[in-house]
Amino acid sequence: MDKGEQQNKESWYAIKVFYNKVFGMEDILFDMGLETYLAVQKVQLKGAEHMLAARKLASVEPGHRADARYIQEGPVIYERKPLVTSLIFVKATLPQIKEVEQRLKDDAPGDKPLGFIYKKADFKDYATIPEIQMTSFRLVTESGQTGLNFFSADEMIQFSTGDRVRVTGGPLKGAEGYIKRIRKDQRLLVCVEGVIAVATSYIPNELLEKITEE
């Protein structure tokens, strides 16, 4: 791949967000025209909370984005609650991710930036996320499963790698990861290397196939 192709190639990147402002960061990236992924749980609102959210959504001016915390599906309104309060993913080219890094500094309320983009171990280059890792992470976090556990990059060290597997059925079909025994249950551990890992609830052997390295 030549330099021009590298500059124009889109990749996924992870951003650590300070101040618990992931929705604000999502708005910034949306305004830049970039695709994002924020792992959330949708919680249906009722009563006074529903009415408050409905008023906020109804008061949005033309051309402006609605409050990103809420999703309206017909008469039902959901609140998006981050599964990881300080992490968002963005798909961008190299020039775009450099622009994002500058925005993290320029839009900060003080001397501390809004966050940082994860980099490789040498801290020189941005860490790009392989598509299969991003796909698997999204499959797990969008599945609606309960009992998910998240681990930081430092915490992942406690889990030695084992057999790599692919899920062959159910809501996690297509996800790839490692089988680990966590709190006495067999679980699928899906890693975004150097950033985060998520462990599913119990998963039976009949839904798994071992991935043979070629």
How would you describe this protein?
The protein is an alpha+beta fold and 214 residues long. The protein folds into two domains: 3-117, Alpha-Beta Plaits (2-Layer Sandwich), CATH 3.30.70; 131-210, SH3 type barrels, CATH 2.30.30. It is built from five helices and 13 strands. The strands form three sheets. The protein has a six-stranded antiparallel β-sheet with strand order 8-12-11-10-9-13. The protein starts with a helix and ends with a strand.
How is the biggest beta sheet arranged?
A: 6 strands, antiparallel
Global mean pLDDT = 91
CATH class membership of the largest domain = Alpha Beta
Name the beta content range.
25-35%
Order of helices and strands: HEHEEHEEEHEHEEEEEE
How many whole angstroms does the radius of gyration measure?
19 Å
The geometry reads as globular
- The number of strands is 13
How many domains? The number is 2
CATH structural architecture of the largest domain: 2-Layer Sandwich
Structural class: alpha+beta
Number of helices: 5
The strand line-up of the biggest sheet is: 8-12-11-10-9-13
Distance from first to last alpha carbon: 23 Å
Tell me roughly what share of residues is in helical segments.
10-25%
Stretches with pLDDT under 50, minimum 5 residues: none
**What is the CATH topology descriptor of the largest domain?**
Alpha-Beta Plaits
Keyword list:
214 residues, alpha+beta, Alpha-Beta Plaits, SH3 type barrels, 2 domains, 6-stranded antiparallel sheet, 4-stranded antiparallel sheet, 24% helix, globular
Detail the topology: elements first, then pairings:
Elements: H1 3-8, E1 11-17, H2 22-31, E2 35-37, E3 40-44, H3 47-58, E4 70-73, E5 76-82, E6 87-92, H4 94-106, E7 115-117, H5 131-141, E8 149-152, E9 164-167, E10 176-182, E11 185-192, E12 196-202, E13 208-210
Antiparallel strand pairs: 1-6, 1-7, 2-6, 3-5, 4-5, 8-12, 9-10, 9-13, 10-11, 11-12
